């Protein structure tokens, strides 16, 4: 059974890995931590991994003895030989090859000199863990890189011997001793034996015989040994160097992908407190060359939090320790880390040193602003909220949006926070942002700050604005509207659709005074305008847009009503003459027909007519009227008129005919190809009485299917009614008609007494005419 164990001070805790570089321990563990409830309902304490001095696994060999190792605080005795295997837990960070780590020239004391400040602590832990009633103990430790093998033999006064697996804290003290024994010129021991007699540590023996490193795992821990505890090549045994090279080759062949960066880790200054109350540390010291390189890294990293003044040197007596925090995006460390390294030789925690080694002692080219903000929050103990990133990103888009509005860039050609084909894109890339064309990441430009990315994108859109413009009729986001609503009308953002358009010679209306610039297509029902209910009580004014083309923004309400946002308030246009308010004579009301086209623009001919009729009206007929068919100006074709003053000039007062009926063209009828189709369209539009149709029939030519004798084919339906099908033009003739002939309407009329003539059967544009009506028409021209 493999246990995961974490060490804080002299407490050894069972741990389970949590999210984002955290670990979970029991809720009653003697350490500070955030109490959280797991999905299964259990309460645990959550701690950052960086607060642990060590996190490792332990297992027992032979494996069947694992069942005895159930408590990291307690060892166990066994009749057969057992060995405890301790292994550091890989964290997925990239690591340097051992050959790239700075080392010192060969010099210094002999291997195996144990610092006295560590041995007493180890002795206390060993004696405290030793079972009662036993007077002699021999602990054998073999250590290499991230792995340690520990075995013990214990003897009582009767000479009886058992095998002993110590509690985890004993292995931690062995680890500490190795770290503090390490020297950059000679490394540290790899095998040692510790003998206890009569309640005291009596002997420490360091063995120099080569270890058997035959497996791939052995080779990998050898490479880790020289990476974590680098030493001069002259003092590195050949057997260790050969195994380490083999381990580097094995790791290179595996091509392990680095773990995702995750949140930054806060670096602790020390690992514990010594007997005198002074802080202490259990880390490998740095050689002179590497110390200077690490100091340059630590002090050169961006400062994310600073404060005036200094604090007391915990290893000295003066207030000289700087206050502040630095980050490289992956780790966050107090400025004091560099101070204690420079002033007292206290090395940073090993994960940070290994990270710096993997970076070849070079700081990143830049630290993203997101990482700086996240590090600052961690430095002050404030929980990090990812929504802060989104809020800053949205704020950074404001200047970009100004450029998009000013240059009228089409939404088809830009995309923010998402890739899109055929568009300039700004997307988040980890903690950075990149700008690229379309989905081509190979040409992307990356930025540490979203504001820089937004400025770059704004420049690209500005430089290429001529090719990226909005097309007329293209829907755009409401915020991109180049025009804003004035007065108290609903803003552009309240409408469902926003589209730049060009208008010319149209009538609009508005509820309210002419101090605003929002108008609607004339006669749009109020409930389709998306206006507040109380606007219905405001006066309704009607206007005509004059003076050529108008570039406006069309808005469509959720109910379907269409309005227009004008560049200026209506008052301005009334004063300049570009808009005309339409009023109505007392006897008239505005046309209720939504298809009324309004009055045509005033022409010179109309002005001349006004001069001839002072005090009267100049009336306007629909221009679709054909004078060959419609004489005069019947009421259904009358659009309205302009009032003429006594001076023979237009007064600005207008009249719209409420009885006007839209022309066939405005109703979408097909363009007439024959005289009959022209009259039929007028009759269907209400411009002519249906009584005109029989005479128009007589004056037109039709297409029909003949019978076997060549005469018109007359059919009889189930009720005995005689039917004759004719077609007013070739477009209505069925494609499967076997044979057709042409005949004059007048000639057909002589043969259709008692027959119903169906013009264009099956088509949307046709009619049924009684044959007897056609016969009478021939008798009364």
From TrEMBL:
InterPro entries: SseB_N (IPR009839), TNT (IPR025331). GO terms for molecular function: NADP+ nucleosidase activity. Residues 504-582 form the TNT domain. Pfam families: SseB, TNT. Residues 708-774 form the SseB protein N-terminal domain. This is Uncharacterized protein DUF4237. It comes from Actinokineospora auranticolor. The lineage of its organism: Bacteria, Bacillati, Actinomycetota, Actinomycetes, Pseudonocardiales.
């Amino acid at each position: 059974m493999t246990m995961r164990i974490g060490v804080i001070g002299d407490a050894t805790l069972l741990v389970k890995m949590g999210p984002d570089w955290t670990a979970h321990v029991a809720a009653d563990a003697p350490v500070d931590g955030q109490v959280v409830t797991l999905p299964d309902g259990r309460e645990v304490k959550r701690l950052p991994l960086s607060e642990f001095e060590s996190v490792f696994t332990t297992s027992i060999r032979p494996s069947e003895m694992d069942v005895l190792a159930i408590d990291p605080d307690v060892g166990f005795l066994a009749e057969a030989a057992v060995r405890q295997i301790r292994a550091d837990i890989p964290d997925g960070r990239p690591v340097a090859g051992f050959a790239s780590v700075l080392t010192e020239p060969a010099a210094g004391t002999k291997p195996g000199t144990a610092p006295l400040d560590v041995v007493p602590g180890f002795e206390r832990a060993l004696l405290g863990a030793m079972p009662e009633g036993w007077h002699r103990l021999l602990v054998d430790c073999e250590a290499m890189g991230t792995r340690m093998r520990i075995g013990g033999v214990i003897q009582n006064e009767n000479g009886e011997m058992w095998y002993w697996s110590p509690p985890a804290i004993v292995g931690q003290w062995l680890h500490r001793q190795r770290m503090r024994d390490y020297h950059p010129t000679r490394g540290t021991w790899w095998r040692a034996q510790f003998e206890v007699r009569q309640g005291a540590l009596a002997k420490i023996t360091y063995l120099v015989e080569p270890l058997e490193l035959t497996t791939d795992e052995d080779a990998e821990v050898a490479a880790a040994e020289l990476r974590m505890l680098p030493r001069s090549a002259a003092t590195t045994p050949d057997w260790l160097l050969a195994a380490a090279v083999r381990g580097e080759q094995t790791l290179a062949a595996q091509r392990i992908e680095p773990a995702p960066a995750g949140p930054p880790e806060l670096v602790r200054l020390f690992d514990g407190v010594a007997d005198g109350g002074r802080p202490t540390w259990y880390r490998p010291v740095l050689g002179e060359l590497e110390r200077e390189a690490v100091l340059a890294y630590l002090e050169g990293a961006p400062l994310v939090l600073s404060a005036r003044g200094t604090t007391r040197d915990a290893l000295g007596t003066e207030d000289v320790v700087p206050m502040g925090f630095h980050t490289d995006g992956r780790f966050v460390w107090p400025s004091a880390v560099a101070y204690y390294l420079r002033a007292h030789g206290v090395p940073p925690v090993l994960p940070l040193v290994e990270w710096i080694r993997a970076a070849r002692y070079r700081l990143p080219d830049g630290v993203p602003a997101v990482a700086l903000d996240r590090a600052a929050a961690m430095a002050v103990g404030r929980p990090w909220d990812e929504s802060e990133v989104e809020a800053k990103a949205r704020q950074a888009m404001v200047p970009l949006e100004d450029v998009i509005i000013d240059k009228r860039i089409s939404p088809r050609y830009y995309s923010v926070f998402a890739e899109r084909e055929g568009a300039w894109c700004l997307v988040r890339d980890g903690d950075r942002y990149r700008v690229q064309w379309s989905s081509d990441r190979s040409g992307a430009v990356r930025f540490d700050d979203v504001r820089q990315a937004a400025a770059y994108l704004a420049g690209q859109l500005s430089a290429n604005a001529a090719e990226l413009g909005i097309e007329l009729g293209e829907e755009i986001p409401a915020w991109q509207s180049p025009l804003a609503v004035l007065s108290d009308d609903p803003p552009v953002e309240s409408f469902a659709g926003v589209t730049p358009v060009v208008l010319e010679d149209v009538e609009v209306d508005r509820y309210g005074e002419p101090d605003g610039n929002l108008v609607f297509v004339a006669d749009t029902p109020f409930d389709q305008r998306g206006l507040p209910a109380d606007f219905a009580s405001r006066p309704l004014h009607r206007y005509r847009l004059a003076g050529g083309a108008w570039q406006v923004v069309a808005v469509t309400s959720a109910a379907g009503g269409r309005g227009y946002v004008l560049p200026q308030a209506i008052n301005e246009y009334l004063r300049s003459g570009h808009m005309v308010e339409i009023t109505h004579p007392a006897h008239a009301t505005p046309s209720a027909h939504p298809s009324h086209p309004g009055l045509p623009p005033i022409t010179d001919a109309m002005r001349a007519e006004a001069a001839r009729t002072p005090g009267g009206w100049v009336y306007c007929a629909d221009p679709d009227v054909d004078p060959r068919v419609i004489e005069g100006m019947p009421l259904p074709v009358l659009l309205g008129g302009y009032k003429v003053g006594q001076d023979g000039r237009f007064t600005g007062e207008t009249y719209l005919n409420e009885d006007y009926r839209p022309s066939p063209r405005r109703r979408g009828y097909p363009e007439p190809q024959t005289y009959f189709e022209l009259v039929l369209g007028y009759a269907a539009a209400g411009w002519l009485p249906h009584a005109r149709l029989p005479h128009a029939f007589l004056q037109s030519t039709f297409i029909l299917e003949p019978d076997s004798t060549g005469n018109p084919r007359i059919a009889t339906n189930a009720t005995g009614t005689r039917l004759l099908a004719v077609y007013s033009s070739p477009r209505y003739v069925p494609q499967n008609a076997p044979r057709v002939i042409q005949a004059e309407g007048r000639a057909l009329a002589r043969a259709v007494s008692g027959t119903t003539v169906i013009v264009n059967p099956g088509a949307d544009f046709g009619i049924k005419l009684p044959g007897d009506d056609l016969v009478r028409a021939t008798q009364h021209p």
